[in-house]
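User: hey, got a sec? need Lipoprotein folded
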Amino acid sequence: MNNKTLIASLALVAGMAGVSATVQADEPHKTVQPSSTNTRELVENDRAPDIYMRSDKAIDWKAKGLKAPGEEEQWVENNGKYMRVKTTNGTIVEITPVKKK
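Assistant: Yep! Here you go:
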């Protein structure tokens, strides 16, 4: 092979490698969302489902006899338990059972 053929071949291979990387970079990332039927028991320091970070899910903690939530926290009810949740990141700060009357 002469130098011109060798250089042309290398340029072609390098160009194909660059196009291949570009095509791969444009593919969307495939992700799987957590199942809505996930039945794993939540514990303190877990991340609560996003729905519990919404203000419309907050319960009246005074009426339920719960202690005051901290700044950017709220009490929510989930499966017979009260959870104190940080509204900024969803961390469960405290879990207490619902008191039966």
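Quick note: The helical segments are 3-26. Let me know if you need anything else on Lipoprotein.
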